[in-house]
Structure to design on (618 residues):
C-alpha cells in the first residue's frame, strides 16, 4: 500500500516533468535545438501571471495572460534572435548558446521586476485539502496537476495527429526543405511550436508555484528534470516525453522513500547519464542513423 | 596571415621581432602592475588569473575539440574540495593542488565517456547532469563539504617580505603563465591538431588516423585538470571552500568566458576571463543585471561576431596592416 501511495505522489510530480519535457521535445523535434532557456521562459510567464494577479485581475484571467506572455516571449526569441542567427549560418552550438543567453536575460529581468525574495502564489487548489480513496491519500493540488498533465497531453495528441496544423508541424520536423517546397509556411509553424512549448512550460510553472514558493530560480530543478525526462523518453518523441516524465517522477519518489531522501534530487541526473550511456535514443525515440 | 616556410617556424611562439617587443612590454607591465595600482585592482587581476586557467581548459574542450560541457562547476568543486581536504591533512600544497587537478581530471574522464557516443546537445545535458549531481552531493554531505561553515584552508605565507596581495598576485600570475605556455604547446603539437580534426569532422579525423577514443578522452582529461587546478587556486586564494561557490551559474560563467573571448583562441580565453571577472565588479551595485549583460553579450557575439573579442582584434589588425587597401 505504501508503494502505491508513493507512486501516486510520484505521478503528480511526474506530470510536471512531463509538461516541461513535452515543451523541450516539441522544440527539439522541429528545430534540433535544446532550449536551455526553457526554465527561464516558464518562470517569466509564471511571474507575469503573479504580477497581473496582484493588480486585481481574476486568477483564471491572469493565468491566461501568463500563458500568453510565455507564448509571446518565445515568439520574440524566435524572430529576433534565432532567425537572424540562422540567416548568418550559426551552427548548432551557436543556437544552443543563443537560448542560454536569452535565458540569462530573462533571469535578470525576473530578478529586476519580481525581486529575489520568495513569495506565496495564490491558487484555487490547495495542497492541504486531501481526498482519501481506499487508503490512498491525494491532495487537491496533486490531483489537479495530474489532471492538467493528462489534459495537456491529450490536447497535444489531438493537435499534432488530427489537425492540419499538426500535420504541417510533423512535416516541418521531418524535412524542412521539403516542407517549404510544398508550400508550408515553415517559419510560422516553427514559431508556433516555440510559442506552444513555452506556454507548456508556463503551465507547469503555474501548477508548481503553489506547491513551492515563487522565486526567480524555482523552475531550475524541474527544468533540469524535464531534460532528464525528455532524454529518458527519447528527445524526438512526444509520447516519450510524457512517459519519461511520469516514469522519472515515480522512480524519484520511490528512490526518495526507499533509498535516501537526501539524494532524491541527484537521482534524476544519474538517470540521464545512465540512459545516455546505455540507450542514447531513449525509450521511445528512434535510433540514431548517421551517414558519412 | 604570414608566410611560414618551415615547421620549426610554425612552432615558434613569437614570429616577428616587433611582436617580441610588444609582448615584452606587456610582460613588463603585468609584472610591475601591483606596485602602481590600487589594491582592489590587484585583487581583480588575481581573480582574472585564476579564472583564465579554467577558461583556457574550457577553450581546449569547447573551442578546439568541439565538445560542449556544462559540468565545469562539478569539476571545480571536486578540484577545490580535494585540495581543501588534502591540505587539511597537512599534505604540502603543491602536491594537494596537483591531486585536486588529477581528481577533477579523472571525473572528467567519466564525463567524457558519454562523449564517445553522444554529440552536441546530448553531451550538453549529460555534462550538465553531472555538474548538478556533484553540486547536490556536496550540499547534502557534510563530511564532504566540511559542514555549514565550509572548509577552511590555510593561506600561503608570503615570501620575500611581499604584502599578501602582491604575493598572491605573483603566485597566481606564475600559475596562469605556466598553464598559458602549456596550452600554447598543446595547441601547436600533434595533440592540438588532433583536437581540431575531431572538432571539424570526427569521422574524417578517424579515417586519417586520429585515435578518437584516446583524443576525445584526453581533451576531457586535460580540460578537467585545468578546471580542477582553478578550483584549488580559488579555494587557496579565498581561504575557504563551500558548495555554494560552485552552482550551475559557475559553469555558465566559464562558458560565457570562452564564447566572449573567442572559440579556439588562447589569447581569447584570457580576454574572456577578464570579461567575466570585470563585469560583476562594474555592476556590483546592480547584481541582478549581471546575467542580463552575460546573456546579451553572448547573443550579440553569436549573431554579429562569432569569433569573439579575439576575432574582432584580429580583424582590426588586418584592417590596419592592409590600410589603405581593403
Amino acid at each position: 500500500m505504501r508503494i502505491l501511495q508513493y507512486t501516486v505522489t510520484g505521478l503528480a510530480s511526474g506530470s510536471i516533468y512531463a509538461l516541461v519535457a513535452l515543451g523541450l521535445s516539441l522544440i527539439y523535434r522541429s528545430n534540433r535545438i535544446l532550449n536551455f532557456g526553457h526554465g527561464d521562459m516558464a518562470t517569466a510567464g509564471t511571474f507575469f501571471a503573479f504580477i497581473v494577479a496582484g493588480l486585481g485581475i481574476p486568477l483564471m484571467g491572469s493565468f491566461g495572460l501568463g500563458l500568453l506572455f510565455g507564448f509571446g516571449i518565445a515568439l520574440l526569441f524566435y524572430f529576433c534572435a534565432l532567425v537572424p542567427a540562422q540567416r548568418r549560418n550559426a551552427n548548432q552550438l551557436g543556437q544552443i548558446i543563443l537560448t542560454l543567453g536569452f535565458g540569462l536575460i530573462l533571469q535578470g529581468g525576473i530578478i529586476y521586476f519580481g525581486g529575489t525574495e520568495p513569495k506565496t502564489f495564490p491558487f484555487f487548489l490547495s495542497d492541504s485539502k486531501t481526498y482519501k480513496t481506499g487508503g490512498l491519500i491525494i491532495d487537491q493540488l496533486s490531483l489537479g496537476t495530474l489532471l492538467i498533465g493528462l489534459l495537456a497531453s491529450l490536447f497535444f495528441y489531438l493537435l499534432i495527429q488530427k489537425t492540419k496544423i499538426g500535420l504541417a508541424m510533423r512535416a516541418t520536423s521531418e524535412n524542412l526543405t521539403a516542407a517549404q517546397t510544398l508550400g508550408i509556411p515553415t517559419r510560422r509553424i516553427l514559431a508556433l511550436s516555440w510559442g506552444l512549448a513555452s506556454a507548456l512550460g508556463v503551465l507547469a510553472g503555474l501548477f508548481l508555484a503553489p506547491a513551492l514558493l515563487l522565486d526567480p530560480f524555482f523552475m531550475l530543478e524541474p527544468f533540469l528534470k524535464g531534460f532528464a525526462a525528455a532524454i529518458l523518453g527519447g528527445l524526438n518523441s512526444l509520447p516519450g516525453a510524457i512517459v519519461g516524465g511520469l516514469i522519472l517522477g515515480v522512480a524519484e519518489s520511490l528512490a526518495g522513500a526507499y533509498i535516501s531522501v537526501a539524494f532524491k534530487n541527484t537521482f534524476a541526473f544519474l538517470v540521464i547519464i545512465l540512459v545516455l550511456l546505455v540507450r542514447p535514443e531513449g525509450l521511445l525515440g528512434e535510433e540514431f542513423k548517421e551517414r558519412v | 596571415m604570414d608566410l611560414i616556410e618551415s615547421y620549426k617556424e610554425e612552432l615558434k611562439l613569437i614570429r616577428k621581432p616587433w611582436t617580441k617587443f610588444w609582448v615584452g612590454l606587456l610582460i613588463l607591465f603585468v609584472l610591475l602592475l601591483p606596485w602602481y595600482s590600487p589594491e582592489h585592482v590587484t585583487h581583480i587581476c588575481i581573480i582574472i588569473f585564476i579564472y583564465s586557467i579554467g577558461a583556457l581548459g574550457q577553450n581546449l574542450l569547447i573551442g578546439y575539440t568541439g565538445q560542449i560541457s556544462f559540468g565545469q562547476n562539478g569539476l571545480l568543486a571536486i578540484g577545490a574540495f580535494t585540495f581543501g581536504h588534502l591540505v587539511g591533512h597537512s599534505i604540502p600544497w603543491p602536491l594537494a593542488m596537483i591531486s585536486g587537478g588529477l581528481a577533477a581530471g579523472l571525473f572528467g574522464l567519466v564525463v567524457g565517456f558519454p562523449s564517445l557516443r553522444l554529440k552536441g546537445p546530448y553531451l550538453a545535458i549529460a555534462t550538465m547532469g553531472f555538474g548538478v549531481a556533484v553540486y547536490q552531493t556536496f550540499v547534502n554531505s557534510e563530511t564532504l563539504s566540511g559542514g555549514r561553515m565550509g572548509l577552511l584552508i590555510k593561506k600561503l605565507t608570503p615570501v620575500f617580505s611581499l604584502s599578501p596581495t602582491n604575493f598572491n598576485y605573483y603566485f597566481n600570475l606564475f600559475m596562469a603563465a605556466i598553464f598559458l605556455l602549456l596550452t600554447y604547446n598543446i595547441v601547436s603539437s600533434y595533440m592540438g591538431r588532433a583536437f581540431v580534426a575531431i572538432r571539424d569532422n570526427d569521422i574524417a579525423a578517424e579515417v586519417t588516423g586520429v585515435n578518437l577514443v584516446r583524443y576525445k578522452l584526453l581533451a576531457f582529461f586535460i580540460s578537467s585538470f585545468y578546471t580542477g587546478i582553478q578550483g584549488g587556486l580559488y579555494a587557496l586564494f579565498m581561504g575557504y571552500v563551500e558548495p555554494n561557490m560552485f552552482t550551475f551559474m559557475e559553469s555558465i560563467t566559464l562558458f560565457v568566458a570562452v564564447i566572449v573571448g573567442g572559440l579556439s583562441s588562447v589569447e581569447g580565453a584570457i580576454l574572456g576571463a577578464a570579461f567575466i571577472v570585470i563585469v560583476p565588479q562594474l555592476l556590483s551595485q546592480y547584481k541582478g543585471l549581471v546575467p542580463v549583460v552575460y546573456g546579451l553579450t553572448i547573443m550579440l557575439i553569436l549573431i554579429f561576431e562569432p569569433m569573439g573579442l579575439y576575432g574582432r582584434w584580429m580583424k582590426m589588425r588586418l584592417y590596419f596592416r592592409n590600410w589603405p587597401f581593403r
Q: What stands out?
A: Residues 212-238 of chain B form the longest helix (27 residues).
